[in-house]
Structure formats: structure tokens, C-alpha cells
């Protein structure tokens, strides 16, 4: 699990802290220590490359979860549009735009 404790805007004398561990006791201690006013704790849901010490797209091994935020909620069905296929195309475009690959693509490259 990869966690980040990031100072909120306006928090003075604060630096981000990071934890990358599978030790549940260590994770719980770290969360208790970092859960304080002026900070927000974030979890990175996607696997990191071995030895990664930072967060960011260059540290990701693959994509398991993608979070989409839609600001325009008025969606309507179009008669000749396959919604599932359109969403798949949108996700593929987003992955390519940011230079990321799915975990399936990463595993197939590892097997080759």
C-alpha cells in the first residue's frame, strides 16, 4: 500500500510524507501519526513499480482503478451510440494521452 500525507494549502512549516508498505501495523501507526489538522492522507490505488519512492505516472506499474469526475451530469442516450464502447474508447484515449498502460498490458509485456 502506498500512502501520502499532503499538507493542506496554507499549512506552514509542513512537508509531504510518504509510506510504501504492506505491514498493516506500520500502516495503522503511520495513519494515526499523520491524521492531524492541516494534512490530508491519500491512498494510491494503483500498483507502483518496484523501488518506487514517489507518486506520479512515471512510478505506476499499471492502472487498476481510474477515477473520473464529470462536471456535466446531463447525459442522454443517443440512438446509434454504443455507450460501453464509447466509454472504452474514452478510457483508452486518456491512458494513451498520459502515457499510461493498463495492468493487463503491463503483464503481457512481462510475459513476452
Can you describe what's shown?
The chain has 112 residues and is of the alpha+beta class. It has 2 domains: 1-44, no CATH class; 56-112, no CATH class. The chain has helices spanning 24-34, 83-97, 103-111, and strands at 2-7, 17-20, 39-44. Strands 2-1-3 form a 3-stranded antiparallel beta sheet, with helices on one face. It is extended and about 55 Å long.
Write the layout of secondary structure elements.
Blueprint: E1 2-7, E2 17-20, H1 24-34, E3 39-44, H2 83-97, H3 103-111
H-E string = EEHEHH
In total, how many beta strands?
Answer: 3
Tell me the fraction of residues in β-strands, as a range. Answer: 5-15%
Largest sheet: 3 strands, antiparallel
Average pLDDT over all residues? 76
- The structure class reads alpha+beta
Helix content: 25-40%
- The global form is extended
Span between termini:
27 Å
Strand order of the largest sheet: 2-1-3
Low-confidence stretches: none
Radius of gyration: 18 Å
Number of discrete domains:
2
Oligomeric assembly: single chain
Number of helices: 3
